[in-house]
Design goal:
The chain is mainly β. 0% of the residues lie in helices and 27% in strands. It starts with a strand and ends with a strand.
Amino acid sequence: MYATDNYLDLGQSGRHMADNPYNGKQPFDNSETDDYSPVKDVRIVGNRYAGNCTLGPIRATNVLTDCGVCSTSDFRNGDFTLGGMANWTMWRNDAPDSVGTVIYADKEKGRICHFERGDVAAAQGLRLEAGQHIFRCELLTGAGGAGAVRGTHPGAGYARRRYALRYG
């Protein structure tokens, strides 16, 4: 989602429906606050804002705004049980299956492959406070895979670290 050059009143709870109508309580009545569809890749910039900007109970990933709304601070769908790559931002190369999920040992796992055909990535943009953070994941890759943790805001003081993935 990209919203720019608008007049937005994001602080009016009840004006948006955060409850996922396809899961949870039936019949749907928009009363559940922790049953929302996965939300990712939100850009809200260059607008006029009324009230306190919020996305309500939604814990979105990869959010950039100029109104104070931030990404969640914890990984969402890290075990891929919400349905594939929900909450994950993907960059594929020309191989359609270069980023996605596979069933491995009876569990759905994230997978990135076909590195020889160009850059690929699966990422989540999170808001992390200064301090020490531990990142653990189970990721299947082909030969040549590498992981990276990096900041997206230039000059924000984020640590950058690249690490080799272990196999076995």
